[in-house]
Amino acid sequence: MEKFLKVFLPILAGSLLLLTACEDDNGFDPFGDPVEKFLGNWQCEENSTIYGDGYNFQVIITRNPDNSSEILIANFYHQGFDEKARALVVGNNLTIPRQGICDDTIEIQGSGSYKNGEVNMTYTANDGADVDEVTARLYRP
C-alpha cells in the first residue's frame, strides 16, 4: 500500500496542477463564461469590398438579455449604436446568424473568433442591391 501511495500521490498532484491552469493564452477557459471576454468597448477596423479598407469606428458589445450565450454588437457595420447584431458565442468563436439590421433593409451573416485579445470577423452585408464582403478586426482602445 505504501508503494502504491508513493506512485499514485505524485501523479494525482500533477494532474491537479494541470487542471488549475485551464485558461489558455487566447482567453479560453472551459469552466468560465465564454461570453465575458467579448463584452465592452472595442475599436473596429473594417475592410469592405464596397467602402474600401481601414474604416474605423467604435462598437459596444453587451450580453443579450434574452439569451446568455449571445452577444449584441452595437454599431455593427457602422450603422449606429441603436443597431445591434446578434452573435452566438461558443468558446472563442462567434456566429452571426442571418438577420436583418436597419429595419431589415440590410441582411447580415458571418462568423468570427477571439484570439490574443482581439476579435476577427468576416461577414456579408446585403442591402438588396449589393453584397458587401467585410473583414473586421476589433481591438481594445
Characterize this entry briefly.
The protein has 141 residues and is mainly beta.
Main attributes of the structure:
Lipocalin; 141 residues; 8 strands; eight-stranded antiparallel barrel; mainly beta; globular; 1 helix
Would you kindly provide a written description of the structure presented here, covering whatever features stand out?
This protein has an eight-stranded antiparallel β-barrel. The longest helix is centred in the first third of the chain and has 19 residues, at 2-20. The chain is built from one helix and eight strands. Residues 12-23 have low confidence and may be disordered. The protein is mainly beta and 141 residues long. It has one helix spanning 2-20, and strands spanning 40-48, 52-63, 70-74, 84-90, 93-101, 106-115, 118-126, 131-139. It has one domain: Lipocalin (Beta Barrel), CATH 2.40.128.420.
Question: Secondary structure elements and their pairing?
Answer:
Layout: H1 2-20, E1 40-48, E2 52-63, E3 70-74, E4 84-90, E5 93-101, E6 106-115, E7 118-126, E8 131-139
Antiparallel strand pairs: 1-2, 1-8, 2-3, 3-4, 4-5, 5-6, 6-7, 7-8
Query: Terminal Cα separation, in Å?
Result: 59 Å
Identify low-pLDDT runs: 12-23
Largest sheet: 8 strands, antiparallel, barrel
**Which structural category do the helix and sheet elements fall into?**
mainly beta
CATH topology: Lipocalin
**CATH A-level architecture:** Beta Barrel
Number of helices: 1
How would you state the average pLDDT, rounded?
87
